[in-house]
Design brief:
six-stranded parallel β-sheet, 19 strands, Rossmann fold, alpha/beta, 14 helices
Length: about 450
């Protein structure tokens, strides 16, 4: 049976091309959605760009017929704008002038007229309200990845013979075709199915307490080069951090993209800053010109132009987590670190004054070509897939791009663990020779005992 899909404003703002994705079913846009889209047309954010894109799509379709009657879509269905059904009953306490309620009112009227109606919205509360009046309702995903628990982690554990483990210790590599590994999940031996640059924990079948760490380079399982490195006094305390260190310390020509997912307290930002500062200050090499730190919740969907001060002063409040990590890196002696707060602040300010570290809003990366920079995108779980693509394609020669974030702490209202840019990039870049990635675990939280307990329980 042909369905009628009623689109909410947020779906079109999330993906203007959503109008064309429902096959041979009918698509309905309530007139209040057009009014809301019109309110975004001058917006300078991605929402404004998407509103204007949607307007161009509708204007082009308008030339093929009348939107009030219905226009044939390429998939076989029709598109129409609905401006009727103001008399349809909805709960008496609902304000009919509110756009969400008006959209539900249209859905209810179409259903009562015999159509198989589905409301498509990314607004959770609207989905709940629609369900209370017996309207079928669904979320919309344009670029979706598997559920978080099934997503690629960049790491795996295998059990191999003690003979092969000793061979790895001696040669520093193992040919994949030479080994079979034991899968606890399937209780059988088989050839491992590995992705390029996937990290591996190899346990001895004879003695599981004996293990080795490696990385699959596409042909062999090779030894980690940087597992025991110290960066400004910061050393890895667990396996996940050793994998992360390998990602960060590998040169930009081999690993220009690094993706690190994991819960709060696993030192993602700390290690990313430490590795960059080590490269620029400690090694005194010309490999990177500076560290560029960006966060997506800074003017990604909000305009900060009306706030007082310079660009750096405007975004400074959003960069406080960066300052917190720099305090640790500037003085690794915990007992002495905070005895002279002014001296500590002066050292950090010097890094910014000398432009060793710069901070920017993610929105300002558009249109640039970033060469020989150490770029950290913090809180990347708040990016959309489209925004991640625009950032990755800004990377020029010699730049290392590091995407870090926690998919359990998404602040953007229309993103979740399956549709955010961080997880999207992780899945799509899986197996790329140019991408190193790892997902840290809850038991690898090193911030404090309370942070670990909170990340695990809450």
């Amino acid at each position: 049976m042909k369905r009628t899909y009623v689109l909410d404003t947020n779906v079109i703002l999330y993906s203007p091309s959503s109008i064309m994705t429902f096959g041979n079913n009918d698509v309905v846009i309530p007139e209040v959605v057009l009014e809301e889209l019109d309110g975004f047309k001058k917006d300078k954010s991605d929402l404004g760009a998407n509103a204007r894109h949607a307007a161009r799509i509708l204007d082009r379709l308008r030339g093929e017929g009348k939107l009030s009657i219905g226009i044939k879509l390429p998939g076989g269905g029709t598109l129409r704008v609905e401006s009727n059904h103001y008399d349809e009953d909805i709960p008496i306490t609902w304000d009919k002038m509110k756009p969400d309620n008006r959209i539900i009112q249209v859905c209810k009227a179409l259903k009562n007229s015999g159509e198989d109606v589905y409301l498509i919205t990314k607004d959770i509360f609207e989905r709940i309200k629609a369900d209370t009046v017996d309207i079928n309702v669904e979320d919309f995903y344009e670029k979706v990845v598997p559920e978080y628990d099934s997503q690629y982690t960049g790491r795996t554990e295998i059990y191999i013979s003690n003979e092969n483990l000793q061979k790895f210790y001696e040669k520093k590599y193992l040919k994949v075709e030479e080994i079979d590994y034991y899968s606890e999940k399937y209780e059988s031996y088989s050839l491992p199915q590995l992705e390029v640059n996937q990290f591996i924990i190899m346990h001895s079948i004879d003695n599981p307490r004996q293990s080795a760490l490696g990385r699959y380079d596409g042909e062999n399982i090779v030894n980690l080069k940087y597992r025991d490195c110290s960066l400004l006094g910061i050393t890895p305390k667990n396996v996940g951090q050793k994998f992360m260190l390998e990602c960060l310390c590998t040169t930009a020509d081999k690993a220009p993209l690094v993706i690190v997912k994991g819960p709060a307290g696993t030192a993602k930002t700390l290690f990313s800053l430490a590795a960059g500062l080590h490269k620029i200050i400690e090694e005194e090499s010309s490999e990177y010109r500076r560290i560029l730190v960006c966060r997506p919740n800074v003017t990604m969907e909000e305009e900060i132009g009306f706030l007082p001060g310079t660009e750096q002063e405007k975004i400074a409040p959003f960069m406080r987590p960066i300052y917190d990590n720099l305090q640790i890196l500037i003085d690794s002696d915990e007992s002495e670190r905070y005895k002279d707060e002014k001296e500590l602040d002066d050292k950090i300010n010097e890094l910014f004054q000398r432009r060793i570290i710069t901070t920017e809003a993610v929105a300002y990366l558009r249109g640039r070509s970033i060469v020989k920079n150490w770029v950290i995108i913090d809180e990347a779980q708040n990016l959309t897939p489209k925004q991640v693509k625009s950032i990755v394609t800004r990377v020029g020669e010699g730049t290392k791009l590091i995407l870090i974030g926690d998919p359990d702490q998404i602040d953007q209202p229309f993103l979740d663990s399956r549709s955010n840019g961080l997880c999207y990039a992780s899945e799509k870049m899986k197996g790329s020779h140019l991408c190193y990635q790892v997902t840290l675990k809850y038991d690898e939280c090193e911030r404090s005992k309370l942070a670990y307990e909170g990340a695990r329980r809450l």
